[in-house]
């Protein structure tokens, strides 16, 4: 939900939702290696504003980007997007537990962050110049669910996990520190 309207976006402004994927989770995709491979991003979206919206993939260093477009055809209605893109064969893509990929869902951004749709390029891009401007009214909202990024050029059904399985996967980020006796 937009809480503060901004009707005058500057070239360096950027507003987005993001997801960070660890490099080790992307090694099977073969980023930075020769060969033709694809990944597919699928998700459900519900926007107040109809028209073209953007999402972009950036490498961890944010010096390689691939902007894509999807369309909200009916206001405040859940619609599914399926976007297939080629794996980047250049650039630096980490394979450890640091950020290997940034996934940006654009809400509004200035011209400095608009790239060419469906084309790998250099620099930090969050979408395309066709992006609907979502920050012009406090009546606007954007919602996403069922986001899935997978190898190949076909979107499969969303992989639902049980609460217990999801909690177990999150435990690797959890550390409990107990206070010892004071000296």
Structure description:
With 183 residues, the protein is mainly beta. The protein contains one helix and ten strands. The protein has one helix at 163-170; strands at residues 14-22, 38-47, 51-59, 64-72, 79-86, 99-109, 114-115, 121-122, 127-128, 142-151. The strands form three sheets. The protein has a five-stranded antiparallel sheet, with no helix packed on it. It has a three-stranded antiparallel sheet with strand order 5-2-10, with no helix packed on it. The protein has a two-stranded parallel sheet with strand order 7-9. The radius of gyration is 18 Å and the shape is globular.
Task: For the structure shown, list the relevant keywords.
mainly beta; 1 helix; five-stranded antiparallel beta sheet; 10 strands; single chain; 183 residues; globular
Structural class category = mainly beta
Roughly how many Å apart are the termini?
50 Å
The largest sheet has its strands arranged as: 1-6-3-4-8
Largest sheet: number of strands, sense, barrel closure = 5 strands, antiparallel
- How much of the residues is beta strand, in percent? 35-45%
Give, in order, the helices and strands. Answer: EEEEEEEEEEH
Beta strands, count: 10
Instruction: Figure out the total of helices.
Output: 1
What low-confidence regions span 5 or more consecutive residues with pLDDT below 50? none
Give the rounded overall mean pLDDT.
Answer: 92
The shape is globular
Rg calc: 18 Å
* Helix residue percentage: under 10%
């Amino acid at each position: 939900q937009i809480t503060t309207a901004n009707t005058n976006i500057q070239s360096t402004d950027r507003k987005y939702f993001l997801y960070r994927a660890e490099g080790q989770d992307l090694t099977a995709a073969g980023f930075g290696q020769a060969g033709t491979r694809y990944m597919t991003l699928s998700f459900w979206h519900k926007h107040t504003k109809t028209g073209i919206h953007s999402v972009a993939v950036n490498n961890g260093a944010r010096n390689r980007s691939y902007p894509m477009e999807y369309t909200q055809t009916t206001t405040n209605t859940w619609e599914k997007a399926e976007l297939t893109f080629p794996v980047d064969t250049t650039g630096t893509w980490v394979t450890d537990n640091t950020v290997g990929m940034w996934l940006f869902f654009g809400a509004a951004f200035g011209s400095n962050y608009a790239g060419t749709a469906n084309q790998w390029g250099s620099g930090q891009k969050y979408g395309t110049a066709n992006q609907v401007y979502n920050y012009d009214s406090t009546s606007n909202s954007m919602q996403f669910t069922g986001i899935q990024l997978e190898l190949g050029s076909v979107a499969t059904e969303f992989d639902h996990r049980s609460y217990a399985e999801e909690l177990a996967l999150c435990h690797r980020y959890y550390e409990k520190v107990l206070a010892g006796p004071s000296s």
